[in-house]
Design goal:
The chain has about 575 residues and is an alpha+beta fold. The protein contains 15 helices and 33 strands. The model has no long low-confidence stretch (mean pLDDT about 95). The structure holds adenosine-5'-triphosphate and magnesium ion (MG).
Length: about 575
């Protein structure tokens, strides 16, 4: 490609709207252009890099045994009504009507469509297991589209769906996908980690996310310093040391004037925080059912775990006004000896083993002491709803948990019979008995992976592409386009590289070399070749973008040298 003819509009200034490095650099390098919030055009450079990732994903999916299909974006509402998601997807789903007033959605994902295909086409166990995938644009009206391609409202995803006769077969495919994703992200030269993930209200044990590690990541990943346990904080668990046993006392009211927080209570009564229990009032956003949620005083509630236990789409704390209207003593609420109507109690497991604990007195300025779970009160549900924090003990070994930021680029998921059951997708087993399919689904955010790759590969001057996903590998710069020797050598090397299928840009613009160097660094070509002073002798200067190292290389050796360096950079 000739720079003079290319559609590359680099920017000197960083556009104000961009917060993350990848977003800034993609805009500055002229890779993408915003059309609306979370909606972008891929300009030639951006599209080339995107296609490289897409091809790696396609090759690895094909070699995993999955077959490529291409399903419609436009999806009839009836399918979504069948699965129940026409309502539960809420505002995230883009909806529209056709000219006959029929409801449609722009596909945010494709479980419904694929299940519909399979239930019509596959009737026998003989066709199983089966895996299909596509690389397709998805539409989600995200509440907070941001960070450029990272959280778009229109984005490119690879989604795969597998169908099985039983869980054993699903487990095999899950492992196969795990290995496939590992190869994909390895080939993209990304530093990543597979972690335990929240399975949503669907439940089940098999859900893993692949996170590209980067400071700007929206997710927190907790990982053990001595074993391979790693989890999204949403799903993380830890070991809590047990408290020593005590003889149970009798609940007693203690006066705690104006002491409405745990930290004040601990100081005021001079008690260990581990002996306190706090009560938080939550509401199910769908049904409005109110819950009193109990955790140990020094712990916090994990709202993702909470919403899963309740099996709803979301939970929210009661507002001060709602608490007042319900005549609850804010700051002094507790499960013992209170009169609550239509309130369900959910206790975190941590509460059960605290002997003689302290909790709200259910009247202003009072707490109870010596309260014990079961003896004095009971919860409707006991579950792990605790937010795990850095430094806590690993749930699997004696190590400790550390924290890192991650960008979720992939998610593999055991769906089980969730969709096949609601959509009545069945096959006949070898005894002629009708059974629902057992399913898995597996996503990779291709456009998000592109942004994540830039988050991990940049410096103050711009992007540093790994060759495997670079839009162009080499940037050839004749020091002066008016110098015949330099121009001739630059053209000769450009032709040679191109003939060898090494994608190359020749910067034939009538600009100063410094200006071109800046653009080259910003765009992130892994290698720069300058035809300068030694052009007459057939020698060029080769610079490695990642290390800054420069070498003098003769025109005869240049192809071999670039090919060799591409293996490392
Ligand atoms: P998130 O928690 O980030 O919203 P998700 O759980 O909704 O992700 P999935 O439905 O599992 O995501 O989608 C599969 C993959 O698609 C994700 O792992 C992610 O890489 C990508 N993805 C999801 N939402 C977006 C988005 N708004 N923009 C870009 N990529 C996305
Ligand atoms: Mg999402």
């Amino acid at each position: 490609m000739r720079f003079s003819k290319s559609y590359i509009k680099t920017l000197k200034e960083t556009p104000k709207e961009a917060e993350t490095v990848s977003h800034k650099l993609m805009l500055r390098a002229g890779m993408i252009k915003k059309l609306a919030s979370g909606v972008y055009t891929y300009l030639p450079l951006g599209l080339k890099a995107l296609k490289k990732i897409e091809n790696i994903v396609r090759e690895e999916m094909n070699s995993s045994g999955s077959q490529e299909v291409f399903m419609p974006v436009l999806q009839p509402a009836e399918l979504w009504q069948e699965s129940g998601r026409w309502t539960t997807m809420g505002a995230e789903m883009f909806r529209l009507k056709d000219r006959n007033n029929r409801d449609f959605a722009l596909g945010p994902t494709h479980e419904e469509v694929i299940t519909d295909i399979i239930r019509n086409d596959i009737s026998s166990y003989k066709s199983l297991p089966l895996s299909l995938y596509q690389i397709q644009t998805k539409f989600r009206d995200e509440r907070r589209p941001r960070f450029g391609l990272m959280r778009g409202r229109e984005f490119l995803m690879k989604d795969a769906y597998s169908f099985h006769r039983d869980y054993e077969s699903l487990d095999e495919e899950f492992q196969n996908m795990y290995a496939t994703y590992t190869r994909i992200f390895d080939r993209c030269s990304l530093k990543f980690r597979a972690v335990e993930a929240d399975s949503g209200a669907i439940g089940g044990t098999g859900s893993k996310e692949f996170h590209v590690l980067a400071e700007s990541g929206e997710d927190e990943v907790l990982y053990c310093d001595s074993c391979d346990y790693a989890s999204n904080v949403e799903a993380a668990t830890s070991t809590v040391p047990e408290l020593s046993k005590e003889e149970y006392g009798k609940p007693e009211l203690v006066s705690t004037p104006g002491i409405s927080s745990i930290s004040d209570l601990v100081e005021f009564l001079n008690i260990p925080v581990e002996k306190t229990v706090k009560a938080m009032m939550y509401k199910d956003m769908v049904t409005d059912q109110v819950y009193m949620v109990l955790v140990r005083g020094d712990f916090d509630v994990n709202e993702v775990k909470l919403k899963n236990i309740i099996n709803t789409l979301g939970v929210v704390l009661l507002t001060d006004e709602e608490i007042e209207n319900s005549k609850l003593a804010k700051g002094f609420i507790g499960p013992y000896n209170g009169s609550y109507q239509n309130v369900k109690i959910i206790a975190d497991k941590s509460v059960i083993g605290i002997p003689n604990h302290y909790l709200g007195g259910n009247k202003k300025d009072y707490h109870y002491k010596n309260v014990n779970y079961i003896k004095d009160y009971e919860a409707d549900i006991i579950a792990d709803i605790r937010l795990v924090k850095v430094g806590e003990s690993c749930p699997r070994c004696s190590g400790h948990l550390h924290s890192a930021r991650g960008i979720e680029t992939g998610h593999i998921f055991k769906l089980g019979d969730k969709y096949s059951k609601s959509m009545n997708a069945t096959y006949l087993d070898e005894n002629g008995i009708s059974r629902v399919f057992i399913m898995g689904c597996y996503g990779i955010g291709i456009s998000r992976t592109l942004a994540a790759a830039i988050e991990q590969n940049n410096d103050d001057n711009g992007i540093i592409w790994p060759s495997v996903i670079a839009p162009y590998i080499v940037d050839i710069i004749p020091a002066s386009i008016k110098d015949n020797e330099q121009m001739k050598l630059a053209e000769e090397i450009y032709n040679k590289l191109t003939e060898n299928f090494i994608e190359t840009m020749i910067d034939d613009r009538d600009e100063r070399p410094g200006f071109k160097f800046k653009d080259g660094d910003l765009i992130g070509f892994p290698f720069r070749i300058v035809a300068g002073k030694k052009a007459k002798e057939g020698i060029v200067e080769l610079k490695i973008r990642r290390t800054g190292e420069t070498l003098e290389v003769s025109k005869e050796e240049i192809i071999g040298k670039i090919k060799e360096l591409m293996k490392t950079y």
